[in-house]
Write the structure tokens for this entry.
Amino acid sequence: MIRSIKYELKLTKGQTKKLNQSFGNCRFVYNWALDRKIKAYQEEEKKLSCFDLMKELTQVKKKEEFEWLNLSGSQQLQQSISNLDNAFTNFFKAKKGFPKFKKKQNRQSFRIPQNVKVDYENFKFFIPKVGWVKFYKDKEIKGAIKFATVSKTPTNRYFVSITFETQEQKKFGKGSVGIDLGIKYLAITSDGEVFENQKYLKSNLKKLRVEQRSLQRKFKKGLKEQSNNYYKQGLRVAKLHEKITNQRKDLLHKVTTYLATTYETVCIEDLNVSGMVKNHNLALAISDCGWGVFRQFLEYKVKDLRVIGRFEPSSQICNICGDRNRNLTLKDREWVCSNGHKLDRDINAALNIKDFGLRASTLNANVSH
Ligand SMILES: [Zn+2]
């Protein structure tokens, strides 16, 4: 199984400077190679291969005016050329648009394709031309390292993500479960287990709206350069945004890992998010929890994920007798069917989702993925 672990780097000022130079150089080589490819094609109808460009790059690096390119590892620069090559392959396969020039404001990253060195005694990681850099203590990797990716976020944080192969097999659970997306909760299972939405997430979202409004006020129309305060505020918004995204992902990772290791078959509803967001009550719940991300995590973690159609009336049907209550509203937390069965709205819905999911053939379940 291929896995990766991400560590945050603790850099000295000197290391930060050197690393930024490397990001800049990789970006430069990527843009240079893109420009060479376009011009060679326009001027001589020549198609430059990855190999041609790498050979050319060796020559460019020898020129005095491009001496600074030698301040970053040559493998990293070559990697930028193969990244561009991949971008073109994707373009020709019509998977993605024509490759674009990279900008400084984007997320910056480069790959260390081989000879990745980690020192767990001192929690240090080796970056060519930068040296050994410290990282915050975290889990140790157990397995064969394939490659590493060094990156920088728009909020000026630096990370290394190390990809490795482990012998350990994925652990799956047993039995089956249905999951209903709650309004009051993040989710509830057909076994009656409730996953709460974390409260701090809500308060941080409120804070974010306030900071975003303040950013809008600081924006002055018609100015070429915005004020320092505007940029400071922009960074504050980006940091808060990053924090919220991480909190959300953490929570969703915990819940989905729990589900995947507890159950073999997990049934969920195919929620038409845009349709449901129109409903104001559900809007907060859905955008707050990132239902799409939840499903995405389940898709790669769960052994047998079944997604049922969004038109099955999962909350209106009594799971015990099949009686349908068409008058059920979002406010009804509990209801009694016409045959006298007392039902908890959310658990009943989760039970129905499980039944629909198990009834659907595997083929159908796959189609709706
Ligand atoms: Zn009933």
Notes: The chain is about 45% helix and 20% strand. Residues 2-165 form one domain. The CA atoms of residues 123 and 137 lie 6 Å apart. The radius of gyration is 26 Å.
